[in-house]
Amino acid sequence: MRHVDLVMGIPMSVDIRHDDEGRARRAARAAFDGMHDADRRFSRFRPDSEVSRYGRGEREQPSADLREVLAVAARFEAASGGAFRIWRPDGTIDTDGVVKGWAAQRAADSLVAAGMTTFCLNAGGDVVVRGEPDPGRGWSVGVREPADPTAFLTVLAVRDGAVATSGTYERGEHVWDGRTGAPATGLLSATVVAADLTTADVLATCVLALGPDGVPWAAQHGAAAVVAVRADGQVLTGSREA
């Protein structure tokens, strides 16, 4: 069963392998309802969203979910030495580096809670999977070649894990180094494999902000594997065992 929707302005999909298609569809709708709710509450483009009101100082007591997002951001800001920050140089708050992965991981968790054991949730290129699509075969997750949208740098076989990529090839220099306030330019892309998508997504942004030094750093902070491409095209890799 496959379900596709537009969430946070990007196409997202889920491929669920389950004998009861009706049950799978209900689980998928509930998961996507949760992501739509996260978009309404955490979008910096909505002036009435909770995060926008919090950023303007209009909400003194953030909700439990916003506290969780802020705690994730604070943990990785400290771990990265300030390279990762959710407060932009212009003084506005931007939780995008946390929320997409966090919301998609919660959606995946809701699928598991609904009894779905085999699925691939694709949140605009960031992926969380459970189980195997076929016995003995992991889910295939392609990592795009930054210089060529039609080519793959590599294809990963993933079981019970998550993959996230942060790059400049589509949105330009949208990630900045929180230590300097300047755009991060040392890498074209950074892909992280981790146990969950919250961690993978934030780590990918951290690696892009840190530059080449972020590859070994991420392997020490929750990444099972890292693949990054330098501005000169050189491919860098790292892993937890390295």
Explain how this protein is built:
With 242 residues, the chain is an alpha+beta fold. The chain is 34% helix and 30% strand. The chain contains 6 helices and 12 strands. The chain has helices at residues 21-42, 50-55, 64-79, 96-113, 197-210, 214-219; strands spanning 2-7, 10-16, 119-123, 126-130, 139-145, 148-158, 161-167, 176-177, 182-183, 187-194, 223-230, 235-239. Strands 1-2-3-4-7-10-11-12 form an 8-stranded antiparallel beta sheet. Helix 4 runs antiparallel to helix 5. The chain is globular. The termini are far apart.
Explain briefly what this protein structure is:
This protein is 34% helix and 30% strand.
Order of helices and strands: EEHHHHEEEEEEEEHHEE
What structural class do helix, strand and pairing data support? alpha+beta
* Low-pLDDT stretches: none
Mind telling me the C-alpha Rg? 18 Å
- General form: globular
Q: Residue share in helices? A: 25-40%
**Biggest sheet descriptor:** 8 strands, antiparallel
Mean pLDDT: 94
Counted by DSSP, the helix tally is: 6
The order of strands across the largest sheet is: 1-2-3-4-7-10-11-12
Q: Count all strands and give the number.
A: 12
Binned strand content = 25-35%
Termini Cα gap: 38 Å
Topology (elements, then pairings):
Layout: E1 2-7, E2 10-16, H1 21-42, H2 50-55, H3 64-79, H4 96-113, E3 119-123, E4 126-130, E5 139-145, E6 148-158, E7 161-167, E8 176-177, E9 182-183, E10 187-194, H5 197-210, H6 214-219, E11 223-230, E12 235-239
Antiparallel strand pairs: 1-2, 2-3, 3-4, 4-7, 5-6, 7-10, 8-9, 10-11, 11-12
Helix pairs in contact: 1-4, 4-5
